[in-house]
Structure formats: structure tokens, C-alpha cells
TrEMBL record:
Occurrences of domain SET (ranges): 1-60
Pfam family, one: SET
Keyword line: Methyltransferase, S-adenosyl-L-methionine, Transferase
Name of the protein in its database record: SET and MYND domain-containing protein 4
Gene (UniProt): SMYD4_1
Length: 101
């Protein structure tokens, strides 16, 4: 990933990091992964993480960059799951209400 001027990342390749692959996704992650020198990466918290709180990564699309429907579609297409993070739980209720009108 290469940071762009809007503080987002532009994918240029895929790599496998066994430790990072253990992290689950959230559309509101509590960490940020920083890649350095093309081979090293660091995990940095972006807010306080309590002792029993799960560490969440973002698999490429978060609630700031896409709406609920776009996120669900991308995560389903690329990772074959339906996101049920706290943000998505809240937004799914709103989305379902809009769909039922
Ligand atoms: Zn989500």
C-alpha cells in the first residue's frame, strides 16, 4: 500500500503476513498497519484499546470511505463474509428500514 495525499492507501500488490492475518476486520478499526521498506510492517493503535478488547484491522474499506451497502458488497466479493462490526450492525438497521419503506 502507498499512502496518497488524502491519507488513504492505494493497493499496488498483495502480500501474506501470517501474524496480521489473525486480525479480524472492522469498518471502524482500532489499529492502523504501517508498511515500511516494502517488507516490514508495524501495527499502531489509533485509540486506546482496553485489556479485553479485540484488536480490529480494516481489510481495505472503512465506514469513512464507503457506505454500508458498498462495504458489504466489497467484503462479500473479496473476503466472502458479511461484516457485523458495531458500525455495520447500527447501519444495517437503518438500511433495512430504508429498504422496507
Ligand atoms: Zn463493518
Amino acid at each position: 500500500m502507498i499512502p496518497d495525499s488524502n491519507d488513504c492507501s492505494i493497493p499496488i500488490a498483495t502480500a501474506f503476513y501470517p501474524s496480521l492475518s489473525l486480525l479480524n476486520h472492522s469498518c471502524d478499526p482500532n489499529i492502523q498497519i504501517i508498511f515500511k521498506n516494502g517488507i516490514e510492517c508495524f501495527v499502531r493503535s489509533n485509540r486506546t484499546i482496553r485489556s479485553n478488547e479485540q484488536i480490529f484491522n480494516c481489510y481495505g474499506i472503512n465506514y469513512r470511505s464507503a457506505d454500508y451497502k458498498q462495504r458489504q458488497q466489497l467484503l462479500s466479493d473479496q473476503y466472502f463474509f458479511h461484516c457485523k462490526c458495531q458500525i455495520c450492525k447500527n447501519e444495517s438497521k437503518k438500511f433495512e428500514k430504508r429498504q422496507n419503506k
